TrEMBL record, chain A:
Physiological role: Required for mitoribosome formation and stability, and mitochondrial translation.
Gene this chain is encoded by: Mrps2
PANTHER family in alphabetical order: 30S RIBOSOMAL PROTEIN S2 PROKARYOTIC AND ORGANELLAR (PTHR12534), SMALL RIBOSOMAL SUBUNIT PROTEIN US2M (PTHR12534:SF0)
Source organism of the structure: Dasyornis broadbenti
Gene Ontology CC terms: mitochondrial inner membrane; mitochondrial small ribosomal subunit
Record's protein name: Small ribosomal subunit protein uS2m
Automatic annotation (TrEMBL), chain B:
UniProt-recorded name of the protein: Small ribosomal subunit protein uS9m
Localization terms from the record: Mitochondrion
Protein family according to the UniProt entry: Belongs to the universal ribosomal protein uS9 family.
InterPro entries reported for this sequence: Ribosomal_Su5_D2-typ_SF, Ribosomal_uS9, Ribosomal_uS9_CS, Ribsml_uS5_D2-typ_fold_subgr
Pfam families: Ribosomal_S9 (PF00380)
Keyword Cytoplasm: no
Superkingdom of origin: Eukaryota
A GO cellular-component term linked to this record: mitochondrial inner membrane
GO terms, biological process: translation
Length: 216, 349
């Protein structure tokens, strides 16, 4: 059992996450397009490649690295049987995100976030709830263009977060930010596809390893 | 620092703060076994057969053995099946490893949001189907739903269906989504799904049965009707092939109702249908005053006339207010006031 858990940690890319996407895929899905110069957040400046006709372009090389780290981390969490919660407050993609979560066998929350969900869970859900082990944000802003409350709450409860940050978002409290577009349907569908494939891959690998261990 | 002497009472745990008791399945099972055993003991005590000892017998036996003069029925000793006594509690929503069963568990309102998710999926299905039809250049069917004959589920019915509390906004949103779904042209595909949330509203009129005409010895058609107004009760028998004669309690209306207004009230149904000289009427009336008796006879005659007339004219009569019982009665006097509404004269000093 110990070997099952320590074995993946010895490899830098145990789940071969790099093969799932290429730079061309990201470009075709319009992940590099950001908001206008006026909406730019100060802390996103390191991730921005440049500005063309007032529109910010995100540096896809950095996005590739961040995306690889984030997918690797989610794969490890899913391998260890952790609870993953997909969060997004965009009405356009609410259905897509919920279907993705259902397909992976994980959980989603694309509705109004009640204040004490993470911080007051024992009283809201009953005694002995298990909190999510990872939060994935498909969009870090809520409907009023302010940072989602869940980022702060997850930081309070020491829950790691993975989030797609656009040029108008604050990447501060997110453990694995992914600078990229969160508004185009193509980009969001690409992210959903990637997360779904990593999680399913990790779970399959876990089942295979357990089966091999049992045979011994 | 002085050592303060504290009693053992302080050291006891605050039992009330733990919340409502959790009834485990094992506990409920034990209670059911004890209840069944107790039922058999009670049957033996009362000298009845344990096999055919129903809940009614139990209630009577307990009332006999433990007579209580308490007013509140819930406070008296009772012996009921444990499922009626212990309230149904929400079962634990997660498995042994802690993972919740439902994928929307962390939203708080899992059944409601999963319902919204499903309904939206149906909407997307219909839109996809529509797109396919437009690609093939086929016409879109416009299904005519009977909007007047059906209503959506009420908030309470929906709460019972989902076993979850809803807020008014949530309910409104769901109904708006359903209406949007129904408004699309190809909504016939998801008709089954929509029918889960709509209920038939039987038209009230169909409940009122119109009696067929009866024939007396000479072959003249007649029909009876009953009416009431305030405290007056009246029965009217309307005969066909008449000359417009109306008798009340054996007395002609000219003598019984000297006031013109009352006679107008009696004639109104006939005038409305244009049958003034065509029917005879014999009525009996008791109770009430002059105006009340006139109103009661009017209602009775209108009800009797329904049998002589087509359904469309019955609908016209109903809309004219001839078939509705007048609900106005004398309002009671309240203490501290002189009459139902009139207050005592206010004196400044």
């Amino acid at each position: 059992d110990d070997k099952l858990l320590t074995e993946p940690l010895n490899h830098p890319d145990f789940f071969s996450v790099k093969e799932l996407f290429t730079l061309k895929d990201l470009f075709d899905a319009r992940v590099h397009l950001g908001h206008k110069k006026g909406c730019r957040h100060r802390f996103m400046e390191p991730y921005i490649f440049g500005c063309r006709l007032d529109q910010d372009i995100i540096d896809l090389d950095q996005t590739m690295q961040h995306l690889q780290l984030a997918l690797n981390f989610t794969a490890h969490v899913a391998y260890r049987g952790g609870i993953i919660l997909f969060v997004s407050r965009r009405r356009q993609f609410c259905h897509l995100v919920e279907s993705t979560a259902r397909a992976c066998g994980e959980y989603a929350h694309t509705r109004y976030w009640q204040g004490g969900l993470l911080t007051n869970a024992n009283i809201q859900f009953g005694h002995g709830v298990r909190l999510p082990d990872l939060l994935i944000f498909l969009s870090t802003l809520n409907n009023v263009f302010e940072p989602h409350v869940a980022i702060r709450d997850a930081a309070k409860m020491s829950i790691p977060t993975v989030g797609v940050v656009d040029t108008n978002c604050n990447p501060c409290l997110i453990t694995y930010p992914i600078p990229g577009n969160d508004d185009s349907p193509a980009a969001v569908e690409l992210y959903c596809k990637l997360f779904r494939m990593t999680i399913i891959r990790a779970k399959d690998k876990r089942r295979q390893s357990e089966a091999i261990e049992e045979l011994r | 620092l002085r050592l303060v002497y504290t009693t053992t009472a302080v050291q006891r745990k605050n039992v009330g703060a733990s919340g409502p008791e959790k009834y485990t399945e094992a506990f409920i099972k034990k209670q059911i076994e004890e209840f069944n055993l107790g039922k058999r003991h009670l049957a033996n005590m009362m000298g009845e057969d344990p096999e055919t000892f129903t809940q009614e017998h139990i209630d009577r036996a307990i009332a006999y053995l433990f007579p209580s003069g308490l007013f509140d029925k819930q406070a008296r000793p009772m012996m009921k099946h444990p499922t009626e006594i212990f309230p149904e509690q929400r079962k634990i929503q997660w498995g042994e490893d802690g993972r919740p069963f439902h994928f929307l568990f962390y939203t708080g309102k899992q059944s409601y949001y999963s319902l919204m998710h499903e309904t939206y999926e149906k909407l997307l299905n219909i839109q996809k189907h529509q797109d396919q039809l437009t690609v093939q250049d086929l016409p879109l069917q416009k299904g005519k739903r009977n909007l007047a004959g059906s209503r959506w589920l009420t908030k309470i019915e929906l709460e019972e269906m989902l076993l979850e509390k809803l807020s008014d906004d949530d309910y409104l949103r769901f109904i708006q989504l359903l209406q949007k779904l129904v408004a699309l042209p190809c909504a016939d595909i998801e008709e089954e799904y929509i029918q889960k949330f709509s209920k038939e509203v039987p038209v009230q009129l169909q409940k009122a049965v119109i009696e067929p005409l009866q024939y007396d010895e000479q072959g003249v058609a007649f029909s009876t009707g009953e009416g009431k107004r305030k405290t007056a009760r009246a029965t009217a028998v309307v005969y066909d092939n008449g000359s417009g004669k109306i008798t009340v309690n054996g007395i002609d209306i000219l003598h019984y109702f000297p006031v013109l207004q009352d006679r107008e009230q009696l004639l109104f149904p006939f005038q409305f249908l244009g049958r003034i000289g065509k029917h005879d009427m014999v009525c009996t009336v008791s109770g009430g005053g002059r105006s009340a008796q006139a109103g009661a006879i009017r209602l009775a005659s209108a009800k009797a006339l329904r049998s002589f007339v087509t359904e469309k004219e019955v609908e016209f009569m109903r809309q004219a207010g001839l078939l509705t019982v007048d609900p106005r009665v004398k309002e009671r006097k309240k203490p501290g006031q002189e009459g139902p509404r009139r207050k005592f004269t206010w004196k400044k000093r």
